[in-house]
Write the structure tokens for this entry.
Amino acid sequence: MAETMPDISQKVQERKKRWEQFYDLNSSVRFLLKVNYAAEKPERPFPRRDNIPARIEWAWKDYLRQLEQVSWLEDDTIPYLNVFTGTEIFAEAFGCKVHYADDNMPFALPLVQTAAEAEKITIPDYGSTHLADLFYIADELRSRAGNDAVLALVDIQSPMDIAALIWDKNTLYPALIETPEAVLELANKVKVLWFRFLDDWKARYGDPFIAHYPDYYMPYGITLSEDEVGSVNSKMFIEYYLPELVEISEHFGCIGIHCCANARHQWRNFLKIPNLKLLNLVQPKSVIQEAMQFFAPHVAQWHTERLSTLEPGPEKYPAGIHLILDPAAETRQGAIQKAEYFHKFYL
């Protein structure tokens, strides 16, 4: 017999408690499981401005799929409503044109080439930009699912990363050396809009959310992508990037970071960010193995490099690590077997 909604809700609440314990590095909940089972996912439309109804219907169908999956797959996935976007949303709000490919994600085209052009950029009212559409999507999904349904956060980069979308990188990095105050001024303008949007988002939809990438549950705080730090040295990170990350983490209470840059030289600097709860790196296997050892005493981890085949067991990972495992499965039975193995050897 299919499980009822109360049964599913109870399971989801139990999973949320495990996530909360997982982020406490002193707790015994060291491993979480999110089976990567994509066979039944509905086909996702690209996030264009002219297909908002299709995006809402896709997100709703996927949410129902996730709820149904709770009834048969014993992993730690939290079903969520996906307000799916590209990286362009804040840059577009500042006036960048957006390129829409027929077969790929949209992306912002740079607007600024010089410090003088950056100075002319003004902070928009997000209610008059496409950012307002994201509240419309979230409201529509919440009206269907109820206020207890968890929303995924839109694609969020740090203000410095968004500045690097607005300002052509061919001239941005020389400017970061020659006129750093102009780059920081632009990033500060982004930060003003960024905080306004996210403070309103939090006030409207509550603290718990799913990170935009990868899709991990956070009971509080904020998550973002920080990809430009691979292109600067450690001194520049500390001077230009770290202060806003500290401010963001302190403002929201904690932070989770995704970084796909080659940023090995910044690892010690990441540890200077207060209340860093989860780190996701996208790097080759050898780098990920080194990262797991380095960060194990300091922060929970979920790395995008399919190390997590589960076998032979938790002993292959660094002592004390808190890690999300995401083995792939092609069938329901394969997904169930992954979960059974996890429960037998990791719990």
